[in-house]
Design goal:
- This protein is of the alpha/beta class and 225 residues long.
- The protein has helices at residues 10-22, 33-42, 59-68, 84-93, 105-116, 152-163, 171-178, 189-203; strands at residues 2-6, 26-30, 47-51, 53-54, 57-58, 75-79, 97-100, 128-129, 132-134, 141-143, 146-147, 208-213, 217-222.
- Helix 1 (10-22) links the parallel strand 1 (2-6) and strand 2.
- Helix 2 packs parallel to helix 3 (59-68) and helix 6 (152-163) crosses helix 8 (189-203).
C-alpha cells in the first residue's frame, strides 16, 4: 500500500499524494530521477508513478535502469506526450501502464488498483492472524468475520502486525512504513496508534492482542484459550 511518485511538478505531485493518502496509501514523492531510483531500490513499494520529463534525466532511462536492477514493482507512467511511439517506448522500457495528462484522479486510482491485481503482484492469501483477517487489498479488516472500525493509520498498523505473524516490529520500522517522506511524525504517534488499536481489538473481542517488548517494539500475540 506504499506508492512512490517521481515528478518535478510539485503541485501535481502534491495533488496525487493527497488523493492517494485519502484512499489509504502511504505516498513518498521525489522530484529527481536519481532520488527516485534509490528510493525504489531501498523501499518495497506497491507501485511507482513516474513522469517522463525530469530535471536530471529522462524517465524512460530511469525505467530501464530500474528494470535492469531487477526491480519488479509495477510502474505507471504519467506524461503529456500523446504520440503512440512515445507510449510504446515507455512500455518497451519496462513500464506497465500509461496515463496521459491531464487525467482524473479516479482513473489514476483505478489503474493503480488494476496493477496491484495482476497475478504476479497478488498475495497468495489474505493476511490473517488468530481471528483477525484482511481482504486481499489490505483495506478492510475483520475480527471473527465482523468488520472492525479503524482509522486509516490504525488499519495500516494492524495489517503490518498481522503480516509479521507475531514477530516483533521496531518503532522505527513502524514509523517508516506508516508515514511517507516529509510527513510530520510526533514523538508519540506510534504509541497513540498502538493504544487506540489495542482498545479497538479489545472491544471487538479479538483473540489476539498487541504486546509491548520494552525497548524493542511491538508484536501481535495470541490470547490463551
Amino acid at each position: 500500500m506504499r506508492v512512490l511518485v517521481i515528478d518535478d511538478d510539485h503541485a501535481l505531485a502534491a495533488l496525487v499524494a493527497t488523493d492517494l493518502r485519502a484512499a489509504g496509501y502511504t505516498v513518498d514523492a521525489v522530484d529527481l530521477a536519481e532520488s527516485g531510483f534509490h528510493a525504489a531500490i531501498d523501499i518495497d513499494y506497491s507501485a511507482i508513478i513516474i513522469d517522463l520529463r525530469l530535471p536530471d534525466g529522462d524517465g524512460i532511462d530511469l525505467i530501464r535502469a530500474m528494470r535492469a536492477s531487477g526491480l519488479k514493482t509495477p510502474i505507471l507512467v504519467l506524461t503529456g506526450k500523446r504520440r503512440v511511439p512515445d507510449r510504446v517506448a515507455g512500455l518497451e522500457a519496462g513500464a506497465d501502464d500509461y496515463l496521459i495528462k491531464p487525467f482524473a484522479m479516479a482513473e489514476l486510482r483505478a489503474r493503480l488498483a488494476a496493477l496491484r491485481r495482476r497475478p504476479e503482484v497478488i498475495a497468495p492469501r489474505a493476511p490473517s492472524f488468530a481471528d483477525i483477517e484482511f481482504d486481499r487489498d489490505g483495506i478492510e479488516a475483520t475480527v471473527a468475520g465482523q468488520p472492525i472500525a479503524l482509522s486509516r493509520q490504525e488499519t495500516r498498523l494492524l495489517r503490518l502486525l498481522v503480516e509479521r505473524g507475531g514477530h516483533i516490529l521496531s518503532k522505527r520500522h513502524i514509523e517508516e512504513t506508516l508515514y511517507g517522506f516529509g510527513e510530520e511524525v510526533s514523538s508519540n504517534s506510534v504509541e497513540v496508534h498502538v493504544h487506540n488499536l489495542r482498545q479497538a481489538l479489545r472491544r471487538a473481542g479479538a483473540q489476539a492482542a498487541i504486546e509491548t517488548q520494552r525497548g524493542v517494539g511491538y508484536r501481535l500475540g495470541k490470547k490463551a484459550s
